[in-house]
């Protein structure tokens, strides 16, 4: 799990959701918004319509946060990650690495 300073609050999520620029990678979409800080902040949204059980949603969220913690870069801004359908764990990890390597640096 990421430290609290690397996570977005509900208010910050609303700002990123309204003003951020979005990019989609198959079953994952991401919204970016500059935050003016030296470190990135993240939030992961997995709707109930995608995964019914809260245990499974939290498991996917922990997997995504783990990959974000391993591969984060400085100066990325705020990132809101939304999962649109369930994908295998290995593919999910690979997509998160690819997204962080390509998109968040812009």
Give a short summary of the structure.
40% of the residues lie in helices and 21% in strands.
Can you tell me about this structure?
- With 106 residues, the chain is an alpha+beta fold.
- It has one domain: Ribosomal Protein S5, domain 2 (2-Layer Sandwich), CATH 3.30.230.
- Strands 1-2-4-3 form a four-stranded mixed beta sheet, sandwiched between helices.
- It starts with 9 loop residues before the first helix and ends with a helix.
Query: How many strand segments?
Result: 4
Please provide the ordered H/E string of secondary-structure elements: HEEEHEH
Q: What's the domain count?
A: 1
As a whole number of angstroms, the C-alpha radius of gyration is 13 Å
Oligomer: single chain
The total of helices stands at: 3
The percent range for strand residues is 15-25%
CATH topology category name? Ribosomal Protein S5, domain 2
Helix content: 25-40%
Please identify, by name, the CATH architecture: 2-Layer Sandwich
Which secondary structure elements does this structure contain, and how are they paired or packed?
Blueprint: H1 10-19, E1 21-25, E2 28-33, E3 41-45, H2 54-71, E4 78-83, H3 89-102
Parallel strand pairs: 3-4
Antiparallel strand pairs: 1-2, 2-4
Please tag this protein with its features:
106 residues, single chain, alpha+beta, Ribosomal Protein S5, domain 2
């Amino acid at each position: 799990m990421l430290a609290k300073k690397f996570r977005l609050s509900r208010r910050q999520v609303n700002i990123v959701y309204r003003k951020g620029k979005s990019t989609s990678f198959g079953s994952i979409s991401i919204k970016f918004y500059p935050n003016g800080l030296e470190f990135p902040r993240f939030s992961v949204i997995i709707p109930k319509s995608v995964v019914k059980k809260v245990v499974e949603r939290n498991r996917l969220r922990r997997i995504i946060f783990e990959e974000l913690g391993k591969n984060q870069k400085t100066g990325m801004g705020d990132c809101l990650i939304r999962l649109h359908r369930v994908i295998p764990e290995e593919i999910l990890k690979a997509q998160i690495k690819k997204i962080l390597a390509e998109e968040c640096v812009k």
